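Below is one such record:
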Amino acid sequence: MSEPYDESLRFIEANGVHFHYALDGDPAKPVLALINMASANLTTWEPVMKGLLEHFYVLRFDIRGTGKSTWGTDNEFTFAQYADDLAAIMDALALRQAFVLGVAYGARTAAQFALRHENKLTALGLFDVALTPPVEQKGQKELGQQALQLLKEAGEPLVERRKSWRWYEDRGAALKAHTAHTHEPDMTDKLDHLKVPVLVACGRQDMNLVEAKRIAAAIPGAEFHVMEMTGHGSPFYRPDLFVRLVCNFS
């Protein structure tokens, strides 16, 4: 049985890399550019795509070295480069501006995009975000289990996670793609000048919650939400809530 990952075969050249991407929905609607979590490919957004497509023209892509995208040199595995890659992909697709939204690791790239390409932004979304070099993640699994138990007790539907959401073509490149946080400094204090609307959200059962609150407080006018019964990787816990926050914000 094939998976969406097997069937997705759209590519575009940008910054010397062959990027795997998807662009779905009505071109007349506002553009929403989604940036993947760590160790995830563009199919990871399946739980929220139906709801998002009711409001947006949705761009997804595999960052360099992950999923089906190729990559360049080792020194190009940085959040700044990933942000520049998104800007180049948007240019290649003639997408002038977008609401750029990242989850977890992807939120770091979204923050860099805001710093480097604010003219291409209509709004910024930072979900499950931390911006300091490496944030302690021990206990994240246990917190996620707590969130799932709370959802079960509340009678909420649980998302069945697919292994294919984390498939990639090259293990070595995928590992290198997810090391940027170990050597890039905190950029929070550079975000206080942003003129676009900023949405910050994080799960109650997420070790990044304190960090997310700090980041939201540092950005004047940022809207902050705590997502109850939600662990790290909020679209996998509360996809309907995720969609509602994003669509209501826009």
Q: What stands out?
A: The mean pLDDT is 96. Residues 4-249 form a domain with the Rossmann fold fold (CATH 3.40.50.1820).
